[in-house]
Design goal:
Blueprint (H helix, E strand, L loop, with lengths): L54 H18 L2 H26 L5 H20 L3 H4 L5 H24 L2 H8 L2 H11 L7 H18 L8 H23 L5 H22 L6 H27 L2 H4 L5 H14 L5 H31 L3
Helix pairs in contact: 2-5, 2-11, 2-13, 3-10, 3-11, 5-6, 5-9, 5-10, 6-9, 6-13, 6-14, 7-8, 7-9, 8-14
Keywords: Membrane, Transmembrane, Transmembrane helix
GO cellular component, one term: membrane
Subcellular location: Membrane
Length: 364
């Protein structure tokens, strides 16, 4: 399963958060008025420990402190907050997909999800919506929409039928496929060390597939397919990012998916119950929020600092699968995941070094 990361399409953003005025906190009055007396000493205010601020003043002071902390936080710290929040949101979305299972056809779920996501994007775009429809690469936009659909079909199908931890661990192989695609399509150079790491990563994937005398698990293979198509999404975004807006990419993704899914969703339509509608709307809104949060995280923070946080998805997936679906990760899943994570971390570090080196050698 893969949600496309649009970090390559936008630059690092800045937060412009104004400071709220601090509301004074005064001591409570006891309601009694002292008798005037020349010898009476002036009344001293109650010490802070005895003063009881009102509820509004306490909340305002707390909000003010939070704004001050947020404004003083480093870009990577703010990006980390966005990233961790996105992963928590995605955990809810994945759990909702797993909960619906096969009760609602996957085609129908994806159609409803995309309609809600597109509506949210249209509202956010507002008056700039006509500008967001302008594209210099309509063919590549359509191709990206198709491989996004393929990635979703493969990834979410596997998610329903295999343990969450296994599906999540296999999805980490997307970085390995990106390395291969960068050489074949983007004509990037990859050194021997990264090729070795990529090869070891694929060995980890094979361990998680756990081949037996009966062959490979079909659903696990679909999870690998989702990672493969997810790598295609990443490469296409790198190309589109040189000329296209983020809203344009999301809008064309929605149009392609809705056009392709319209007839199959109608043919396979099963009217959801009230409880199923709740989960459908929830996963759609959380999916949209997660995509926005990840995009914001990479706008604010550095990719090399944030990317390793993505592996906490495995912990969240294992926890969700164990608590809500009584799933226990197998030893082969844990062993293969360890190899894939190690190879991926090494690849990302090498990529970061290569990027820094190219930036330093570039002319001013």
């Amino acid at each position: 399963m893969s949600e496309d990361r649009l970090s390559d399409t936008t630059g690092r953003g800045s937060e412009s958060i104004g400071l709220a005025e601090a509301l004074p906190v005064s001591a409570e009055e006891d309601g009694s008025r002292p008798e005037p007396s020349e010898s009476r000493s002036p009344q001293l205010p109650l010490p802070p420990a005895l003063s009881a601020p009102s509820g509004e003043s306490w909340l305002a002071a707390r909000r003010n402190r939070t704004r001050l902390w947020w404004r003083g936080a480093s870009p990577n710290l703010r990006g980390t907050v966005y990233m961790i929040t996105a992963l928590l949101v995605y955990a809810v979305m994945v759990g909702a997909f797993k909960h619906l299972g096969t009760a609602i056809p996957l085609i129908e779920t994806l159609m409803i999800r995309q309609i809600i996501m597109s509506a949210v994007v249209f509202v956010i775009a507002g008056r700039s919506l006509p500008l967001a429809f302008k594209t210099d690469r309509p063919g590549l936009q359509i191709f990206r929409g198709l491989i996004t659909l393929a990635s979703m079909l493969c990834g979410f199908s596997a998610l329903v039928h295999i343990p969450l931890a296994q599906a999540t661990a296999i999805s980490f192989s997307q970085v390995l496929f990106v390395t291969v695609a960068a050489v074949l399509i983007l004509k990037e150079r990859v050194d021997v060390a990264r090729w070795i790491a990529t090869g070891l990563g694929f060995v980890g994937v094979l361990i998680m597939l756990n081949p037996s005398s009966e062959g490979l698990n079909v659903w696990a293979l679909l999870s690998v397919g989702g990672a493969l198509f997810g790598a295609g999404i990443t490469v296409s975004v790198r190309i589109l990012g040189t000329s296209e807006r983020t809203e344009t990419i999301l809008i064309y993704q929605g149009l392609v998916l809705m056009v392709v899914l319209a007839w199959p969703a109608w043919a396979l339509w099963v009217w959801p119950t009230a409880e199923q509608w709740f989960w459908l709307v929830l996963l759609s809104l959380f999916g949209t929020a997660g995509q926005w949060l990840i995009t914001k995280a990479y706008q604010v923070g550095e990719a090399a600092a944030l990317a390793p946080l993505d592996f906490s998805r495995l912990i969240l997936a294992g926890f969700t699968g164990f608590v809500f679906f009584a799933e226990v990760p197998s030893l082969t899943t844990l062993a293969g995941a360890a190899i894939v994570i190690g190879a991926t971390l090494y690849t990302m570090r090498r990529n970061a070094r290569g990027r820094i080196g190219s930036d330093l050698s570039a002319p001013p």
